[in-house]
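Hi Y.,

Following your request, here is the sequence exactly as I used it, all 147 residues.
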Amino acid sequence: MKTIFDKNTISILIDRISLLTAEDKAHWGKMDAFQMLKHCNLSEEMFLGKRKYDRLFIGKLFGKMALKGIMKDSEPMKKNQPTHPDFKIKGTGNFKAEKENWISLLKEYDKYTVPEFIHPFFGRMTKEEVGNYVYKHTDHHLRQFGK
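Below is the corresponding structure, written out as tokens. Let me know if you'd prefer a different format.
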């Protein structure tokens, strides 16, 4: 399974991100291109240990089962997955700055040092799970915009 901890994988994802434009339309979902970038940046900041979110009650009940379903194989994530309320982005902003920030954040995975990551929905995740999930999440949103 692909992982964000592979430098070649990061390079390929950055190439795909570089193709994004503010005018790109989503093939599914409600976010526009800027909102997707902001959503992904918040997610990267969380996985990189720069932001913390409280566990959701429903995640305590179903989080591990949901993570297992996502991680069971190398298939892409399904369309229209639920989004944590703090990751639902409204409004507009600086597309170019968000795009550059996402690329910069992805490059930080080569020195990942979060010893015990706890996702607000999935709960405790191993480094391997983080690597695979972050790849799948990134790929999911790039495919959402045809990249």
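DSSP finds five helices and two strands in the chain.

Thanks again,
Q.
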